[in-house]
């Protein structure tokens, strides 16, 4: 299924040189008059035109100038994977009018989130072949923002081809004129960031945190098995369903490795521009632009620390030495007697802190993911297996013989 996608040009993911530009799509000499051509061919041609424009960047042309519109309607396809997921799905093309009506004309009272892409609205939409309306999330591109049409295309391509219980499901899109909108399944509990960092939200119990970590690890494992690097893992990009099932969202920065390879092969690629979120990026990626699956593993280590501590990855309001979550935490990794200092104070005050053995294992996993040397970091398959025991534990202080690592390594 992904054989053609592996040829997808990696340079398609570029932020606009001028983030302040209106992002409006101008007329193009490239048109698609044959509407019977496949969704695959159209996306490849769109990506190729972006790469051509980037290679001839003397005039600093915007990718959007040469990127033709997405197809009116992609074909359905069936995906079978080794995780036991069978999905018949495709992103449905909608008109701007349909999505505006579904989202209540983007009224303020329908606003449920806002990020780098734009604003997200809660809506109700009748999908083709269905009679009843379903609750959806409609994300509208900020035309004055920094994310361009190429990232929009990447998100549509990725989520049309990749299906897993821990990836958010893309239901449709709109690419009408200069409007760019995405339609997702609605995630009732919002983002993990809100639950961890907003005091007004109910406290997440320890077991729930470990289940969220396990689900996020399984989502990354699935991507890495298909040679996809997520590149923007953070708590705000993890959405929670009504039962706290975590799902990775926002795939505009995702990249494919140069060849089909598993995460354990060490395959990597190089970015001309470092992208991601400060505080989550792997040190070797920041220094050299070298990107690999182990870059995601580092970001996962930061996320796991957030779940353990209830702290932000970067928090300028904290004292010197504590503003960087990783910088503060690594000073305790070599001393298990200090692990309790890492636990979220809200868990401690509620007398719901983790059993010492589980805390040791969780901190050990985070420490291994955050190794300075990327070659020493584990692959996501091993991380997911380890966290599965913590997520499934039902006793107050359960010891797992298979989870007895040596003292966590220093980073």
From TrEMBL:
One Pfam family, short name: PK_Tyr_Ser-Thr
UniProt keyword terms in alphabetical order: ATP-binding, Cell membrane, Kinase, Lipoprotein, Membrane, Nucleotide-binding, Serine/threonine-protein kinase, Transferase
Residues that bind ATP: 139
The Protein kinase domain, residue ranges: 106-390
Compartments (UniProt record): Cell membrane
InterPro entries assigned: Kinase-like_dom_sf, Prot_kinase_dom, Protein_kinase_ATP_BS, Ser-Thr/Tyr_kinase_cat_dom, Ser/Thr_kinase_AS
Protein's membrane topology: Lipid-anchor
UniProt keyword Nucleotide-binding present: yes
NAD in keyword set: no
Region Disordered, annotated ranges: 15-34, 55-74
EC assignment: 2.7.11.1
CC terms in the record's Gene Ontology section: plasma membrane
Principal EC category: transferase
Chain intervals with Low complexity compositional bias: 24-34
Reactions catalysed, as given in the entry: L-threonyl-[protein] + ATP = O-phospho-L-threonyl-[protein] + ADP + H(+); L-seryl-[protein] + ATP = O-phospho-L-seryl-[protein] + ADP + H(+)
A single GO molecular function term of this UniProt record: protein serine/threonine kinase activity
Family in the record: Belongs to the protein kinase superfamily. Ser/Thr protein kinase family.
Name of the protein described by the UniProt record: non-specific serine/threonine protein kinase
